Structures are given as structure tokens and as C-alpha cells.
Amino acid sequence: MVEKKFTIGWVLRNIFLWFIVVVMVFPFLHMLSVSLSGNVDVMKGSVSVLPMINGKIGATLGTYKHVLSNPLIFTAYRNTIVYTVLGTAAALFVLSTGAYALSKPNRLLGGKTINILIMITMFFGGGMVPTFLCIKWLGLYDTIWAVVLPGAFSAYNCIIMRTFFSQFPKEIEESGKLDGLNDIGILWYLVLPTSGAVLATIGLFVAVGQWNAFFGPLLYLNGSEKYPLQLILRQIVLQSVMDNFASGDSAAGANLQYAENSVKYATIIVSILPIIAVYPFLQKYFVKGVMIGSVKG
Question: 278: pLDDT confidence band, cut at 50, 70 and 90?
Fold first, then answer.
């Protein structure tokens, strides 16, 4: 007997999944459409998922030209790329070496105690003021390292990577020792080359966090030439708000009201496009890395 493909459960699952897709995709399409639409259509509220100009489907790049005309925008892009690359590299180095050592609690002196202490940091933190004082005492204030180093270690990422390394076959490690490799050699030559999935997953977590970093740079950086993209985009949006406030209720104010809303959406699109462009290349590693590094029941 041939099983029917289109069962009620199959139909309901697909309807539910398509509903989730629409709910998640619609806001992005709406933001993109508003940022590409003309003033009158946005003020009328006639823009939905397609950009409009004078009541007809069309697009204009005026808002993006306004955002990208800021002299610091490309400097901010460069800074963000540097912070993301350095931060991701530092995090992968710290997490891989630390997680591999913690995956051998019986061989690491105080390994079980260190694992417990790392778990505690997931529920309790030192707070903003002690962290700021620590950054200043270390001489990192107003340097790129104040943005890069604090995010290099994450208890959650460390636990995922530690669990992954704990599942690595002991027979391969023992064969490496017979060939004269020490622990560092085993990690570098045997473990890491076979850990692409978890490294890509953790790297994506860290890279997205560094790319979207806002509060840390706001606290620790004191010059706009060092600001990442998020802070410069914030300045652009605030400037649009101030221009709108200064214009009052005049006709120019109506145009600026559109500019304010459109700038907000355009800055969001500008900030997320690079991450969206990179994600498809790492997607095949993403789910695999999380599942391999998950805790077994």
C-alpha cells in the first residue's frame, strides 16, 4: 500500500512553517520598501512590501545616499570589520585552547572547580562599573582592545566547545602521543582540523556579536574616528531626529519626518547586509556545530 504524501499533518505543518516565514520576512521587506520609497507615499502610509514613488511601484536611493554621505561611515565600516575579525580570531583562540583543557578535567589541576566557576558566571556578573574600572586599570580604555578582548570569552560558547572536544576519540589522541605530540600539538594537528563545524558555529556567534556591538564601544571609546558602524549609524539617526525637532510643524518638517523614519530603516539595512551575505556560506556548519556540541541527555 502506497502512503499518501499530502496528509492532513503534512498540510498543517507546511501552513505553520509558511506562516512563520511570512512573519519573519515581512518586517525586512517593509523596511527595505520604506527606505526605497518616496516622501509622499511613506507619509500616506501606502508602502507595504513594494517600494512606491508617486503612487506607482518604483525605488529611489536618496535615503541611502544620505546615510552613506556621512564622512565617517566608511571609517566606521573599516573599524567594525577590524573589530569583528580581531574579536572573532581572539575568541576562537581563547575558547579552543581553554575548552580543550577543560574537556580533560581529570588531567587539568582544579579542572572540575574551574568548570563550576565558569558555570557560575552565566548567572552572576561583576556589573558595569567594576568592568569599566577593570578596563581602565588595564590601560585598554579608548583602544581597540577594549572592544575586542572583553568579548573574547563566553561561558556559553566555552561549554559548547568543551562538550564537542570531550567527544573527540581518545584513540586518536593516544596515537598522537605515540607519534611524539604534546597536548598543544594534538589540539593543533588533530583536533582543530576536524572541528570545522563547531569553529564555524562559534565564530558566527562571536562575529555577529562583534558586528552589532554598541554598548561596549559607547563606554570604552572616546573618539569618533574609532567608533564602529553601530555608533555612527546612531549618530545619523539622532541627527535626523534633531533636524526634525528643529523644523517644527513646517512643510520642511514633514519631509524630515519621512527622512527620519526612512533613515532608521536604511541604517538597519546597511548594518545587517554584510552578516546576511556571509551567513549562507556558514549555514551548513551552523546546525551541525550546535548539534554536535550539545549536551547529551
Answer: confident
**CATH architecture of structural domain 63-297:** Orthogonal Bundle (1.10)
Give the three cell numbers for residue 254: 514633514
Residues in the chain: 297
Per domain, the residue ranges of the chain are 1-60, 63-297
What's the pTM? 0.80
